[in-house]
């Protein structure tokens, strides 16, 4: 008899496979005297250090690319002669190999941290190597993402960015986590890489290695030990999804033919070819600040023009929405705002920081106008974090003065959503940034893990604000785009269209799933889903109500 667990599904995929748990971090080895001689302990330490270096190197060779370099550097750490000497000295004083390795790595780690900068950042790598050597000495699985030769479903508490960097996507059939919500790092990764995932499954850690499970993201369920009928049904559904994904090409559209252009979110021209290949019909959000995150001084007009031209040339004949530099909070740009602030998300950020440095804003708009003049993309420009009608007027007037013909604003603050009709009287378009709009509507810092569960764009309060902008768009006949993470959630994307969004912009890897999902429903159905979501009391209820309604269509 199968049983099932539930959580929050990411996307609509389904996968069947055997569980492999991410081992828990190892406890600190006890500091008790060794029962062996120092020489015997030295031999144990030597063998485990050498084996760990060889295993890490082997992983690097299999991973290739930049992971190979990272892992090669880690292998060298396990062979570092200073460290090995330090371990030897500690063993001579009667410690166990486990304890000596732990202590020697920890003291080396503290040294690196005190050096700061690049060396300090290597401290985590050193911790990882230390844990691996200790695990080898104890004969238990190494911590971190398991790396077997066969495909598996990864079950973990949650995944850290360092874990996910080395995930071998050809082996990971699906992800199931006990923690994390729809905007956790795991969820973002799953969406970005189109991995089947269900997060926030409270009892996930009770799943034993090797147990067969069906992971169904559309319903947010994990079926444990499925019957052969359940397995066959899941495999058929997976094949159907794969077929729908590959057949859903061409412009984004609902089942009744209503066009919903699907655009890409990009942070540099480097992603342009990939976005086009995945069917992006243009760019809905070009995050220009990503080009200059490392700069300590403002970029020159020429430097910017070259960057913008590269992107516009790649999207010749298509729409490209460029966002003016969005500095502050999660995206610090020291040349725009270097002042320490108690609440940076509520501080001098976005358009406010640009306005306080108007020459930088003018330079950026001029660079963009110059790039536009030399290419034939359809350039739209927008300001981030606009919270008043007056700011809208300021930005659109300046952009037009510089010669840019289509100027709009991002709606990321509730005040702008509530006055969207007045904002759209001036702006040529609005683009809703649901990441920030959710943060400000629920008053929960989007970077703070302790309030991550509030960061859910399915929340009816967020959707109500999106609906206000949609209504204003219809009344004024102006386009309303969505460019936050919400647009990459296939079912939520349908709801957003039901609320009045006319375009959706997302990371390119989400395009296929969103395109396939839009094609399943008519505008009437999308509007019905929107009403269901709006009348819910919580994000969970809204998602649940729409998921159930969509499954019965
Ligand atoms: C948003 O806030 O939704 C958005 C698209 O902008 P960013 O994530 O870059 O702040
Ligand atoms: Mg934003």
TrEMBL record:
UniProt keyword annotations, A-Z: Cytoplasm, Kinase, Magnesium, Metal-binding, Phosphotransferase system, Sugar transport, Transferase, Transport
Enzyme Commission code: 2.7.3.9
Reaction catalyzed: L-histidyl-[protein] + phosphoenolpyruvate = N(pros)-phospho-L-histidyl-[protein] + pyruvate
Cell compartments where the protein resides: Cytoplasm
Occurrences of domain Phosphotransferase system enzyme I N-terminal (ranges): 6-122
Keyword field contains Cytoplasm: yes
Name used for this protein in its record: Phosphoenolpyruvate-protein phosphotransferase
Species: Herbiconiux gentiana
